[in-house]
Amino acid sequence: MEAALSIFENFGRDALTFNRLGAELGASSTAVYRHFQGRDEILEAVAEELNLISLRGYEASARWQDSLMDLAMRAWDTAEKYPAAAANSFFIATGGENELRSVDAILQALHEAGYRGSEAVVNYQVFSNMVLGSGIALASDLLLEAESGNTIANIQEYSPPRPELFPYAEAVKHELSNFNRRNVYTQHVSMLISSFEQNAPRR
Amino acid sequence: MEAALSIFENFGRDALTFNRLGAELGASSTAVYRHFQGRDEILEAVAEELNLISLRGYEASARWQDSLMDLAMRAWDTAEKYPAAAANSFFIATGGENELRSVDAILQALHEAGYRGSEAVVNYQVFSNMVLGSGIALASDLLLEAESGNTIANIQEYSPPRPELFPYAEAVKHELSNFNRRNVYTQHVSMLISSFEQNAPRR
DNA sequence: ACCTGAACACCGTTCAAGT
DNA sequence: ACCTGAACACCGTTCAAGT
Description:
The structure is a homodimer of 203-residue chains.
Chain A: H1 2-11, H2 18-24, H3 39-55, H4 64-81, H5 83-89, H6 97-113, H7 117-148, H8 167-171, H9 173-176, H10 181-199
Chain A binds a DNA duplex (19 and 19 nucleotides) through residues 17-19, 27-31, 33-35, 38-39.
């Protein structure tokens, strides 16, 4: 897994091949098959590894709101540190131990917020889709920047041939080209946590 | 683009190759290079095509809340209909016309909600990350189900070796295995729209 | 202007053979 | 138990040659 992460982050989004894994580990590429059934199984293990890294040292906070913010920022930091690995593995459901630890940690916070049963599960899904989606968006941006050499390669190349067709985008074009991704994320997480607070059943 | 979408949905997530594109179009695979610089450019065009399909017939509603819900459901329906294409292209920033139409439609709704400048842009980012992230999550689930032949292949294979380590997941394991993805999504979208309402500056 | 065929370097995967 | 080397079918991409 160390070798896999290092290959991803040194050589980019599509870099994880059996050849490179074998070379990095000082073995033949086919030897890897002795330890993984195929490429999908390696990516599953990468997903588990990123969950492990994200959760390292995690403990629930006194306030459930702080727990959720902590968990959200841990995933963000992991996506920022390992964008190529994150872009390849954030939406793989492993069913493994570290994934379950994440699930359980989120469900614990929602339990403390007062949610039970299917309401807890719906809010868990909402939270985890937000975290993983934002993580992939960040990872995609970072990879695109790394390829192109530019900073913020996203929508900010705003220069349409007929700007009069997009008046609302035109009105905020400078803000579109220049915003802080981390601020957007913390605001997004805060919005969800506030919603969880407001909608929580009283107990 | 029709051929590309058809290949994706008939043969799966990794099916879009030059060989298959050529065959589907009754031409040699290398002829495709006359029309696209490379594979990345094809995927960009697929992303534009999915935006076009999503926006077909869209008009802003009287209430900005309804506009945002409409846009959110359109992206959802597209991801459901074209999961392989969506999984490959939802986070590609094309800078193209249809992407800009989406951006502009969201910004119009947020403008009507009272947001301007960087506040509009932050909320646009929040909304679009939610929509795209949920779309990729749906697409990944559907692809996994198609591969495995099962229904809901996600976290619902919940059967850890030591369930006592995950008490909060254990408490809702039946709900984890059996939830309605569309309901989760509509609730997620509603939560964001409510937040936009509550935080909107008064004008 | 558009297409074809051969070629290149590289994939994932399998498997008989080695130690 | 673990690794290697050869082989297979398939990639994306380039390019000279055709019409």
